[in-house]
Design a protein that fits this description.
By secondary structure, the chain is mainly α. It contains 6 helices and no strands. The chain is elongated and about 65 Å long.
């Protein structure tokens, strides 16, 4: 339900600007930036060996009740924590690469579009971060409930 709320807020933000929704979303879509951010996150998760726990965390957090062990919950929470850190690092890396590339542009008119594209890495990172925060909170609550039983 929280994921739907984040998506709804993003769409509301697009609609509240004085432009149409499709034009606004078309400007915010840069697949190279998105894939490079995902590549950083996937690389970090696989190198830490927590990629399976990351996907398992969604199942644990979104299910109502189940028989989970404390170890499963802790590993899932650790995977989400690592993913959040990787998202922040990947967003900053994407922005930094785009900003450095804008220094090598010959024409001054090309600098604002380069910086605009580089800020999309930060935008994508914030959006992913907002999607994972409720998952992290639900895992913490389930861990507290498990310890309270």
């Amino acid at each position: 339900m929280s994921i739907i709320g984040v998506v709804a807020c993003f769409l509301l933000l697009c609609v509240c600007t004085d432009q149409s929704l499709m034009v606004q979303m078309g400007r915010m879509l840069d697949l190279v930036t998105l894939f490079s951010l995902l590549l950083v996150i996937i690389t970090v998760m696989i190198s830490a060996g927590l990629h399976k726990d990351f996907f398992h965390a969604f199942r644990l957090a979104l299910s109502k009740r189940g028989n989970w062990s404390l170890l499963e919950l802790k590993r899932a929470k650790e995977a989400i924590d690592l993913a959040l850190k990787a998202i922040v690092g990947g967003g900053v890396l994407n922005f930094s690469v785009g900003a450095v590339e804008s220094f090598f542009v010959d024409r001054l008119k090309s600098i604002p579009p380069c910086l605009g594209v580089s800020t999309l890495g930060i935008l994508y990172a914030v959006f992913m971060f907002l999607l994972l925060i409720p998952i992290q909170a639900k895992l913490k609550v389930k861990m507290m409930e498990y310890m309270g039983e």
